[in-house]
Amino acid sequence: MTIRSVRGVHDILPAEASVWQRLERVARRVFEAYGYREIRLPMFERTELFARAIGEVTDIVQKEMYTFEDRSGESLTLRPEITASLLRAYIEHGMHVQPKPVRLYAFGPVFRHERPQAGRYRQFHQIDAEALGDDHPAVDAEVIAMLVEFFRQLGLADRLALEINSLGDAACRPGFRERLAAYLRQHAAELCEECRERTERNPLRVLDCKRAECRPVLDRAPSLPDHLCAACAENFGRVRAHLDAMGIRYSINPRLVRGLDYYVRTAFEVTTTELGAQNALAGGGRYDGLIALLGGTQDAATGFAIGMERVVLLLAGEAQPVRPAALVIPIGERALERLLPIVRDVRARGVGIDVGYGDRKLRAELQRANKLGVEHTVIVGDAELDREEAIIREMKSGQQRTVPLAALAADLVALGGQA
Ligand code: AMP
Question: Is the CB of 307 under 6 A from ligand 1?
Answer without folding.
Answer: yes
